[in-house]
Amino acid sequence: MLLVSGCNDQQKTPVSTCPAPTKREARIIVPPEVQGQWKAVKIAVLNKKTHKKSVYTVDIGSSFRVKGSSLSVKVLSFLPAFVMDGTTMTSVSNKPENPAALVEVFDRGTQIFKGWLFSLYPGAHPFQHPDYSYTLVDFIRTEKTS
Predict the structure, then answer these.
(1) Which of 13, 33, 66, 136 would be a feasible disulfide site paired with 71, CB 3.0-4.6 Å?
(2) Which domain holds residue 60?
(3) E-only strand ranges, 3-109
């Protein structure tokens, strides 16, 4: 039987005391050409039991309560051309080529999900909930004033 340890072979300490690998924190970088250019997103919420879909328009940085439930959703960030490089998420342009919204879902104030909704790939990293599903369906630019 072969036992593989993550510790250096020179160490004479039990495996249980080996330092845990450090987890790199994800970073979101909103490029200057994207900052302030997008006002809100539209998120469709499907009630799986009634098959009723409601679309909520929510400003980036704001939240909404899902009608008839104890759930609320907060939109943390929007990237129009989402790309990921390691633990860094950013937008390669201001064109909506791969729109994504970072959201948090809360049930009675407790976070139950934090992740990305993709309008082109709604099945990527989907939020699993027994009663509701969420989809990014649209995004709204900031109105330009002259």
Answers:
(1) 66
(2) 22-141
(3) 27-29, 38-47, 52-59, 63-65, 71-79, 82-85, 88-91, 100-107
